[in-house]
Amino acid sequence: MDNFNAALEMLREQFEEGSLVWLVLFAMLTVIAAMYIFRGVYIYFKKSVESKNYMMLCISIFIWAFLILSGTFAGVDAEEGTLCSLAIKGIGFIVPVFLMLHIWSQVSYRPVTNNIRVLWLIVPILLTGAGALMIRDPGLDLGSVPLGYQNVSMIIVVANLYFVIVSIKSYLLCFNVFYQMPVHMRRSTYQMLIAISAIVIAQGVSTYFGASQNMTNVLLAIAYIIAMNTLFTAFFIANAANVIVTSRDFVFSSLSTFVITVSLKGNILDWNRKAKDSCLPLPNPKYKEPYVHYRKRILETCNGTVSPHDGNIINIKSADSENNFLCYWHEIGYKGNKFGYLIEIADVTNIYTQLRNIEGIAYYDNLTLLFNRNAYIEQVKQLETSEGMPLLIVIGDVNNLKRINDEFGHLSGDKLLLTVTRIIKENAPKGSFVARIGGDEIVVLVPRSDEDQAKTFIAAVTRMLDEADDPETGKPSVSWGYSVMYDTSEDYNDVFRAADAIMYEAKRKSREVSISGVVPHDSPKQ
User: Which superfamily, per CATH, for 364-506?
Assistant: First the structure.
């Protein structure tokens, strides 16, 4: 400590009023500040980067240095109670404010408005005005409060307190960047921290060690040079737009999808309320509510169902519309440590509608709207499990369809098909699968059923077909066959051929046995 004080004393002697080093230093600072003013103007007009507060910072430093330089030439002591020394002190109050405002404009999405600038400049203006009042009349007494030199210490305390507040605000703005931004976006903020710290250290050293005003100005001059350079460098590392757009909270609140953060135990911790409240017809989550309970509330209160295509898709129906939401889970973790989950709920109604349109083309017969052969093959694969046994297979072949097409045209044949398939769908047992697998061939698959169910179904369809007599094509009829697959050890195609053979007999051997319902095996049956 003694060595430091000795070194400081030597510096005091070097920078006494009128010292050549003193003059050179502040002449250099004046020129450097002017250079950075022009650089700020260039950035603003050519690079479209927000630099208004940076220019104000450089201008205030320029005025501060110029006043000290001109005062030195005029023989004015910076420590004397003159208007020149007061102006120097006033600008010294304003520099940290513009430094803070510049950092604010670079790291916060809340804009620095003129009202904010005026609000933060009120205290320096009041302090300078109070100092000017004391210089003009040191013994002035306003009411019971004398405004003389005895109150200078109070102004110094207020000034130091204000400097501390401005510095803390600047640090907090930078630390908020460290919390909000990814690592690669923090480099420009490191430069801003250097600028703040340089001024804080210079002010702290001069205050703590009782440096003279000249010595304080020297330390601040060096700090201002560092600040202007580091802030200018920060512009080209990441400007305000790039920093703001990576803000986690800003991004989170700007998402159009509904995002929920969930703990490892599955409890809801937070959600982006802006997206939730904008247009999504979903109930509000509750803090620490289990996500499974929230999902259940969605299904119960919104008339929701789980999509048969994907368990993560929820279908919500209203009186005049249907919305489809995809609930996609993301794991939250760092370096192998899992902390929780992020659930993204996106409105996929348009995509889901297109999917169902494509599915309609792929799995439905465009004339009868029954399932087609593709859907039939997929259904057989699903039903060939113990849960679907015993499986009733009913085969129907529309009689005389080819003759009607040839004699009366395909429109008459289509009319016949539509009549037959309508009646079959109306009488098909609950839970059954009805498909048109050929030109005139219909298959009905009924899980967990038997031959009695087949007889009842065929009798009902035949009775309604007898009543649907057409004056042009006559009374429609269908040849039927059926068989039951009792166990998964049986081969489906063998059971199908047995039903087809019965239908063949019903056709009175008018054609060969149909094999259009035979399902290709992906692999040999074990």
Answer: Reverse transcriptase/Diguanylate cyclase domain (3.30.70.270)
| Helix (H) or strand (E) run with residue 485 in it | strand 478-485
Q: Tell whether the model's pLDDT for residue 263 goes beyond 70.
A: yes
Q: By the 8 A CB rule, do 218 and 122 touch? A: no
CA distances from 453 to 393, 445, 446, 463, 500 (A): 11, 11, 9, 16, 17
- The predicted model scores a pTM of 0.50
C-alpha triplet 32, 244, 174: angle, nearest 5°: 60
Lowest mean pLDDT segment, chosen from 242-246, 305-309, 504-508:
242-246
* DSSP track, 322-347: EEEEEEEEEEEEETTEEEEEEEEEEE
> Which of 358, 352, 287 lies closest to 317 in space, CA to CA?
352
Question: pLDDT for 382-425, tens place per residue?
Answer: 887 767 789 999 999 998 888 888 888 888 889 999 999 999 99
The CA distance from 354 to 348, in Å, is: 10
Phi/psi of residue 139, nearest 5 degrees: -100, 15
**At 127, which amino acid appears?**
L
> Which CATH code fits 255-355?
3.30.450.20
Please check whether residue 217 is in contact with residue 211, taking contact to mean a CB–CB distance below 8 angstroms.
Answer: no
φ, ψ dihedrals at 259, nearest 5°:
-120, 130
> How far is the C-alpha of 517 from the C-alpha of 380, rounded, in Å?
10
Farthest-apart Cα atoms in the chain, separation = 130
CA distance 11 to 21: 11
pLDDT for residue 428 = 94
Helix runs in 108-212, H state only? 114-136, 152-180, 187-208
**In one letter, which amino acid is 52?**
K
pLDDT for 417-440, tens place per residue?
999 999 999 999 998 999 999 888
What is the per-residue pLDDT for 144?
42
Q: CA 490 from chain center: how many Å?
A: 53
Q: What mean pLDDT is predicted for residues 483-490?
A: 90
Instruction: With beta carbons less than 8 A apart as the criterion, state whether 295 and 288 touch.
Output: no
Task: Specify whether the CB–CB gap between 262 and 345 falls below 8 A.
Answer: no
Other beta carbons within 10 Å of 331: 9
pLDDT in tens, 435-465: 999 888 999 999 989 999 999 999 999 999 9
- 239 pLDDT more than 70: no
According to CATH, the topology of domain 2-245 is Rhopdopsin 7-helix transmembrane proteins (1.20.1070)
CB within 8 A of 302, min separation 6: which ones?
Answer: 281, 282, 283, 316
Domain spans of the chain, in order of start: 2-245, 255-355, 364-506
